[in-house]
Specification:
The chain is of the alpha/beta class. It contains 15 helices and six strands. Helix 2 runs antiparallel to helix 10, helix 10 packs antiparallel against helix 11 and helix 10 runs antiparallel to helix 15. The longest helix is centred in the last third of the chain and has 39 residues. About 2% of the residues have low confidence. Keywords: GTP-binding, Hydrolase, Nucleotide-binding.
């Protein structure tokens, strides 16, 4: 990233603004071009489709959702593009060991080369075919993860017992799952306990963090942007968004200082702000669809979740007037800070003064927007967790 920005500085030093603009635009668009393919497999009725929809941040009744009918069992490898990030695709794989997908030919028939990692799901216990698949994936030097689904059903069933303990129930499910895999010959398995209907509790967030940690860097950004925020641990998402702000600010400054064919500074700044802020709102799960899904899964009303949102950015449709007010309010502060920001990010060239003010205003504005929405996301998820932890 820094090497890329160094090239931008060089272009600006040489007064080659058009080249700098092109380089920045290419860098900012790159995450949308990097494919991320996630394979999800398991036996029929194991909760694959519901899990797949949860990862895409949609409900089963939404358009494009994977069908969750108990009578519909996929017999083909079926792709489901992410609704907001089409470069991210989740693939519903038929259960291993079916007539069309025998265990010894499963990976080849499924087209294993295209997948970045596999998620193997079971709602009861993992079976011999699951272990065979995991071992074959290991041989191919690809990642896989065991997921024990429908944990909410187990908790609900156990709650009827007099001596019920949520912690003890979860421990027993984990121990049984791990021991079952060991008995089938799989050493040191890691199993994630999840509920696709309540992704903000149990171990969806631990699974998410493990995927982030183990994916290559260029794939990690695609995952971070596309996956819903399942927990209060959103620092990685903030880091990804923050790292791009200097590019947006430099692009804004370059367009403002030296006209580039086809780009108006005013038009660019408006469309850029709308695009970036929309990405923040969706990325933090503060859009209406995400909040409705969180309300349904947590039991906290949609209105109560919205009450914790302070920023107007996530409340109303952003208008030109809104951005004008924000820019005016930050302009004087930006002018005072321009020298410091320019010395850090953009080289001193003929247009340094005008570029500095434009750069700093954009930089401060987007940083402020990001901070507001990150704080809102923290408050919303804390509210959603209160009811769960008090039950």
């Amino acid at each position: 990233m820094e090497a890329s920005f160094a090239s931008v500085k060089t272009d600006l030093m040489n007064n080659n603004t058009a080249a700098a603009v092109e380089r920045i635009q290419r860098y900012l668009e790159e995450p949308n071009d990097i494919p991320l393919n996630i394979a999800i497999t398991g036996e029929s009725k194991s909760g694959k489709s519901t899990f797949l929809n949860a990862l895409r941040g949609i409900k089963s009744k939404d358009e494009g959702a994977a069908p969750t009918s108990m009578t519909q069992t996929p017999m083909e490898v079926t792709p489901y593009p992410h609704p907001n990030y089409p470069n991210v695709t989740l693939w519903d794989l038929p259960g291993i060991g079916t007539t069309k997908f025998p265990a010894d030919e499963y990976l080849e028939l499924a087209g294993f080369e295209r997948f970045d990692f596999f998620i193997i799901i079971s709602d009861t216990r993992f079976r011999e075919n699951d272990v065979k698949l995991a071992q074959e994936i290991q041989k191919m030097k690809k990642k896989f993860y065991f997921v024990r689904s429908k944990i909410d059903n187990n908790i609900r069933d156990e709650e009827r017992k007099k001596d019920f303990s949520k912690e003890e129930t979860l421990r027993k499910i984990r121990d049984d799952s791990v021991q079952g895999l060991r008995d089938l010959g799989f050493e040191s398995p890691q199993v994630f306990l999840v509920s696709s209907f309540k992704p903000h509790i149990y171990e969806f967030s631990e699974l998410h963090e493990t995927l982030e940690r183990e994916l290559p860097a260029h794939k990690r950004d695609a995952l971070l942007r596309a996956m819903p925020s399942f927990s209060l641990k959103i620092i990685n998402k903030i880091t990804v968004f923050q790292s791009r702000i200097k590019y947006w600010a430099t692009l804004s400054a370059a367009v403002a200082a030296v006209p580039v064919p086809g780009l108006s500074a005013a038009t660019f700044n408006l469309s850029m702000m709308v695009s970036v802020v929309t990405d923040y709102v969706t990325g933090f799960g503060l859009d209406k669809q995400s909040l409705e899904k969180l309300a349904a899964s947590s039991g906290v009303s949609y209105d109560d979740l919205c009450a914790d949102i302070k920023s107007e950015l996530a409340k109303e449709k952003i208008t030109k007037e809104f951005f004008m007010i924000m820019f005016i309010s930050l302009a004087s502060k930006a002018a005072l800070m321009a020298a410091e920001k320019v010395s850090r990010w953009i080289p001193i060239i003929v247009t340094a003064a005008s570029m500095g003010i434009s750069f700093t205003t954009t930089y401060l504005t987007l940083s402020d927007f990001l901070s507001q929405l990150a704080d809102d996301a923290q408050r919303v998820f804390k509210r959603a967790l209160v009811l769960e932890t008090s039950v």
